[in-house]
Specification:
Elements: E1 9-11, H1 20-25, E2 30-34, H2 49-63, E3 67-71, E4 76-81, E5 86-91, H3 103-120, E6 127-129, H4 137-140, H5 145-162, E7 167-169, H6 177-186, H7 199-209
Parallel strand pairs: 1-2, 2-3, 6-7
Antiparallel strand pairs: 4-5
Helix pairs in contact: 3-5, 5-6
């Protein structure tokens, strides 16, 4: 049995390492690859070396016959800083993007993602992961829920400016009250995310996967179904 009978895509921890043939033999069709914030000095300014590397990897992967699901920049991340010798928070978005929580910031996020989507063109697949595990501090630090959720929403809005047929989504780390609280804000009325079905079913499946819910237990299901994107 090939992986494609159960699994459609994989995530490389850092880079593909040119192991395309091995992945193809498994039957995998999609690969998720990160894409960084593009500019170093100003909006629509000089492209960063990291962005150029990310773009090249996405192009190379697509050229080898895979569909790529880009994962867009989170607010930041706790990563090891060799200069300081410890793990520190690193912001993804420079100060010139604007103050977080302001309309200037969200509009610049939209325009950033419009640019990225247009720049990647057909090398990017129709599916996009907006940010990463926004329900945990590793990628959101102590930012308020509204900033975390609204940045994800602005990300999707920008992608759809460039490609109205794109299907954008988020990934939460696990099933818990914090994740549900963030998801409720992300998927409130007016969101532009693609839904595979009712949110309650998604919640039930997430709970089972984390081992927190017996198959016979449907208590976390909610009767309210979310509005479809654009409604």
């Amino acid at each position: 049995m090939k992986a494609s009978e159960k699994i459609k895509g994989i995530v490389y921890a850092y880079n593909t390492g040119e192991e395309y043939d091995m992945v193809r033999e498994l039957g995998v069709e999609w690969i998720r690859l990160n894409v960084s914030f593009p500019w170093t000095d100003k909006m629509f300014g000089t492209l960063s070396e990291q962005y150029l590397r990310d773009r090249e990897e996405i192009r190379r992967t697509h050229a080898r016959g895979f569909q790529v699901m880009p994962a867009t920049p989170p607010l930041g991340g706790f990563t090891y800083d060799e200069a300081l010798g410890k793990t520190c928070w690193h912001e993804s978005f420079p100060d010139f993007v604007g103050k977080k929580g302001t309309e200037e910031f969200y509009e610049n996020i939209r325009e950033t993602m419009r640019f990225v989507c247009e720049d990647l063109g057909e090398d990017a697949g129709m599916y996009w992961q907006c940010m990463n595990e926004i329900d945990i501090p590793v990628f959101s630090n102590d930012y308020p829920d509204e900033i975390v959720a609204d940045t994800a929403r602005a990300t999707a809005e920008g992608i759809l400016r460039a490609n109205p047929n794109a299907r954008c989504g988020i990934n939460i780390s696990c099933y818990n009250e914090n994740a549900l609280r963030i998801a409720d804000r992300v998927y409130r009325e007016g969101h532009r995310f693609f839904l595979y079905g009712s949110r309650p079913v998604f919640r039930l499946l997430a709970a089972r996967r984390c081992g927190q819910l017996d198959r016979r237990d449907r208590r976390p299901l909610r009767a309210l179904r979310p509005a479809r994107a654009g409604q």
